[in-house]
Amino acid sequence: xxxxxxxxxxxxxxLLFSCLLSACVSDDPDAxxxxxxxxxxxxxxxxxxxERTLVGMETxxxxxxxxxxxxxxxxxxxxxxxxxxxxxxxxGWTVTGGSYDLEETPGSAQFVKESADKGQILVLLISYExxxxxxxxxxxxxxxxxxxxxxx
Length: 152
Hints:
The protein is of the alpha+beta class.
């Protein structure tokens, strides 16, 4: 009986851990063509360019401030990222840290957007080289301020 109770406790704990993890971030970005962070649904790069070889996926942070990095291999890095960054900007993402040049390799581009969760933002960092790119998404406690709307 004790053995059965321990096994049930282990199964329940594993299920709870799995549910908590999946509430923050989707394990399979290609399943729904989005990267999921609680209520935030970010289009995945594969939703724009089609299937690419996912060569790595890393989880960082914690449940309060999750971070996921997806690394893809591609023979068309410039074209992939050109299409993806255009989509991000069409969906309200703002380029931060100045501009970026996708033809300059290696390189990076960073975008931000307010989260669906009040008082939080999403930061999306794209790092790329000749045949590989990584998309890292982090959710942080912060607010975006529009400095361009002040007039004198």
